[in-house]
């Protein structure tokens, strides 16, 4: 198996300063993956990306918006089109840094679609909130959408996008809401309690693309077992019915139990279980064609490097044993970067990654109600029975 990992230290230049989206989380991820030998595996290729051109960005973004991003990147103080806010402060070189991430994710998807790689990872990508003409949620350019647009341009007829970030994948959904060739599936904390306030079960696709959006809105406090129960009650069924030719997954790590910006309660063990499930689904429904990106995640030392090192391991080959100790050299590096953050010593939080399959009415709690709401809204579009756990 050949796996492409898009990487260059220049990807760390997407730096908004004193801001939750700190590039140190990506830096520490790549350092940990190297320490554990993940990036040295047979068949793994690291490739430096090229920035996406304005024409490429224009496949999903308005030209006027791109021009504003360029202007704001020169140091001009602009507060327009979502820029210049606390969520999306402008910074020198913002356009170039954002275009490089878009170029990385696009190249990953292109390589997999063209057969140059079996799987690919754009760990700095996953900026799923950016809208066609507006920055949002720490995201300037929507690199997953740019990548999916490229695969469609190359002739794909069915692409599935599965978003497991704690926040709704609103930008990708918005961009492809009227396109029946793209299925967007998002599992996220309820929009009643978390940004961006969208992702209700009744958001199911625009005219002519009914059923192309599937949303699972989970209550605060959802833990590993409940999250995995919801995932398996919804995602495999719709993917099997849709039959994608390529699976793109946005793997934000902000579902973590101690993430400062959200309220779900997953461990890195639960996140690892999600990656394994996505790998198996990519093999089953998409001929193995799998592109994975990063996303959110604000427990910069405690979670993100471990979660995404597990992701890199799963994408590139064998999963890492959760009991694996973290090398002392990485612990020292992490402490030097963020001295106030607890530094983990192993690749587990002590979770099991186990879950119990969903059965209608068997667990009449808030998660069960969320599952049923999504199945009732979305499953009929796929010819599936919302009440049959076999679907």
TrEMBL record:
SUPFAM superfamilies: Arginase/deacetylase. Residues 334-364 are annotated as: Disordered. The keyword Ribosomal protein does not apply. Pathway: Ketone degradation; acetoin degradation. It holds the Pfam family Hist_deacetyl. Gene3D superfamilies: Histone deacetylase domain. Residues 334-349 have a biased composition (Polar residues). Residues 19-314 form the Histone deacetylase domain. InterPro entries: AcuC (IPR003085), HDACs (IPR000286), His_deacetylse_dom (IPR023801), His_deacetylse_dom_sf (IPR037138), Ureohydrolase_dom_sf (IPR023696). Keywords: Acetoin catabolism. The keyword tRNA-binding does not apply. Belongs to the histone deacetylase family. This is Acetoin utilization protein AcuC. The lineage of its organism: Bacteria, Bacillati, Actinomycetota, Actinomycetes, Micromonosporales.
């Amino acid at each position: 198996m050949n796996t492409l990992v898009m990487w260059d230290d220049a990807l760390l230049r997407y730096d908004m300063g004193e801001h939750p989206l700190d590039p140190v989380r990506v830096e520490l991820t790549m350092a940990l993956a190297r320490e554990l030998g993940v990036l040295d595996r047979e068949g793994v290729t690291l490739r430096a990306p090229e920035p996406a051109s304005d024409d490429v960005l224009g496949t999903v973004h308005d030209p006027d918006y791109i021009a504003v991003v360029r202007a704001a990147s020169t140091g001009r103080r602009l507060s327009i089109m979502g820029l210049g806010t606390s969520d999306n402060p402008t910074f020198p070189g913002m356009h170039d840094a954002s275009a490089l991430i878009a170029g990385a994710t696009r190249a990953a998807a292109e390589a997999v679609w063209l057969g140059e790689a079996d799987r690919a990872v754009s760990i700095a990508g996953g900026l799923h909130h950016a809208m066609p003409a507006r920055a949002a949620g720490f995201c300037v350019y929507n690199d997953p959408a740019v990548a999916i647009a490229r695969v469609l341009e190359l002739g794909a007829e069915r692409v599935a996008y599965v978003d497991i970030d704690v926040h709704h994948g609103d930008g990708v959904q918005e961009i492809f809401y009227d396109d029946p060739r793209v299925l967007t599936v998002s599992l996220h904390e309820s929009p009643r309690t978390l940004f961006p306030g969208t992702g209700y079960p009744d958001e199911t696709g625009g005219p002519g693309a009914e059923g192309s959006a599937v949303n699972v809105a989970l209550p605060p406090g959802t833990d590993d077992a409940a999250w995995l129960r919801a995932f398996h009650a919804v995602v495999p069924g719709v993917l099997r019915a849709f039959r994608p030719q390529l699976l793109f997954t946005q793997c934000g790590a902000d579902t973590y139990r101690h993430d400062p910006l959200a309220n779900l309660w997953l461990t890195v063990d639960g996140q690892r279980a999600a990656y394994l499930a996505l790998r198996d689904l990519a093999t089953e429904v998409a001929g193995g064609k799998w592109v994975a990106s990063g996303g959110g995640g604000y427990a910069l030392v405690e979670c993100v490097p471990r979660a995404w090192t597990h992701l890199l391991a799963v994408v590139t080959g064998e999963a890492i044993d959760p009991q694996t100790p973290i090398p002392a050299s990485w612990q020292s590096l992490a402490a030097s970067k963020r001295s106030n953050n607890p530094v983990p010593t192993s690749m587990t939080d002590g979770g099991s990654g186990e879950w119990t399959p969903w059965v209608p009415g068997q667990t009449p709690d808030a998660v069960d109600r969320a599952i049923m709401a999504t199945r009732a809204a979305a499953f009929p579009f796929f010819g599936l029975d919302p009440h049959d756990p076999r679907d």
